[in-house]
Design a protein that fits this description.
The protein is mostly helical. It is 44% helix and 9% strand. The chain is built from 3 helices and 2 strands; from the N terminus they run E-H-H-H-E. It has a two-stranded parallel sheet with strand order 1-2. It is elongated, with a radius of gyration of 14 Å. The termini are far apart.
Length: 90
């Protein structure tokens, strides 16, 4: 797959998809786990699903950015935040 086009998912998109689509959490519960709002989860799911479908339809390699410094596609949120510390996190 060296010559295949790539579609990138940020770690936040991947985690939102994992929590909601694989673990079965609702958007509010996923937001609490990730330390972000339900609206942010909704946005991550929308963009992540869109990129996932694009990769499948166009036969692109799907790349999940697992490190914040890997790609500019990684968003400002981090699922590693501790619960209840959302307001004080950067």
């Amino acid at each position: 797959m060296k010559d295949a086009a790539e579609t990138h998912l940020s770690i936040d998109q991947f985690e939102a998809l994992r929590l909601c689509d694989s673990e079965g959490l609702d958007q509010t519960e996923a937001g609490e786990q990730m330390g972000v709002s339900r609206g942010t989860i909704q946005r991550l799911l929308y963009s992540g699903r869109k990129q996932l479908v694009d990769a499948l339809i166009n036969n692109h390699a799907l790349i999940v950015n697992l490190k914040d410094n890997e790609d500019e596609n990684v968003s400002m949120h981090s699922y590693k935040r501790k619960r209840g510390n959302r307001r004080n996190s950067v």
